[in-house]
Description:
It contains 14 helices and 13 strands. The chain is of the alpha+beta class.
Amino acid sequence: MDLLQLFMISLCSVFFVVLFCYYFYKENRIKGLRLPPGNDGWQLPFVGETISFMRPHNSTCLGEFLDTQISKYGKIFRMNLLGKPTIISVDPDFNKFILQSDERAFQNSCPKSIVEIMGRWSMIALVGDPHREMRNIAVSFMSKAHLKSRFLRDVERVAVNILDSWTGSMNGSAFSAYEEGKKFAFNLMVKHLMSMDEEDDERENMRREYETFMKGMASLPLNIPGTSYRKALKEEHRRIDERKKENGGKGLNWDDYKEMEFTNCVINETLRLGNVVKFLHKRAIKDVHYKGYDIPSGWHVVPILSSSHLDSSLYQEPHKFNPWRWEGVNRGVGLMAFSGGPRLCPGAELAKLEMAIFLHHLVLKFDWKLAENDYPVSCPFLAFPKGLPIIVTPIQS
C-alpha cells in the first residue's frame, strides 16, 4: 500500500469520525427539547431538502414542497436547509413575531453567497448597530419630504422617457415588460445614488453587471388580468390628468399621487400575489419557546413571507387577484412584501411611488396585451419564464 492510499484512508477515517461526533453532539444537545416536527434530511446531510425547497413554482401559491410539508407537519416544521437544521414557518403570527424580535431573539443570517455578491457592508448583510446606523441614513435619504421634493420629479421623468421609447421602436411588436421594468428601476437607482443620467455611457455597462446578480428584483404590475381593473385604473388617472389640464398644471405632484387610491390597491394586490422576496434567513440568538415548540439558539429560522399573503384566514379567496379587497385599508397594512419590524425596507414607499407614477403614464399612453401567456414564478426571487412579453398600442389623444 503506497503513501497516497494510506493518506486517503486516513482522510476518510477522519471525515467519518468528525461526522459521527457532529451527529452525536447534535442529538445530545437537542435531547429533551420539543422541536417542531419534520424531517432532518440526514440522508443528504449537506444538502437535505434544499433542492426541493428551492424548486421554482407559480408565485400565487406556496409550491408543492411546502404544501406537502404543511399537510404532514403543520405550519411550523423543521428541515435540513443548506446543510443546517432549520425551522420553516408558514405561520403568520410566528412570522410577525420573528420580524418584530430582530436583535432580541433572532438575527439576520444571509447565506454566504448573498453576502459575497452584495458585500459584507451592504444593509442586507449587516446586523446590530451597523445595520441600525445604515438604515437610519437610508430612511433619512428616502424620507417623505424627499419623496415629495426630489424623487417624484425624477421618477416621472424616467417613467416618461421609458414609455416614450416604446412609441417608436416597440410599437406593434412584442417585447419584454419584465426587462423594461428592470430598466426603469435601475435608471432610477443610479440617478438617485450616483446622479447618473440615462445618457451616461457607463450606466449601460453598470446595468448589465447589475442584472447578472439581481434577477427578479424588479416587478411592475403589467400582467393585470381582466378589463374591469384596467377600466378603473384608466378612470382614476384620466380624472387626475383632466383636472391638471384644467388648472394649467404640468407634471404630477404629491397631492396627485395621494389621489391614486385604486392604483395603490392594484399595487398592494400585485405585491401580495407576486412577492419579490418569498422568504428571509434568520438565526435564533437565544433559546426561543413559541406555541409549545423549542427553537435552540444557533438554529436557522426561515419565515415564508408569502404564506401570510395566501392565508385564507386573512384574505378571502387568497389566490384570486382582487384589488378591491384593499379599499379602505390603510395603505397595505398586513403586507410583508417589504419585510417588517426593525428591518422593514426603507425604500418601500419609494418603490410604491415609482410603480404608481409609471402606471399613471402607462394607462394614459397605451393599451397593452400579453403576446404570450406568462406568469410570475418564485425561484426564489420573482421572475417570468418568458419575460412577460407584451404588445402595446398607443392611445390616440
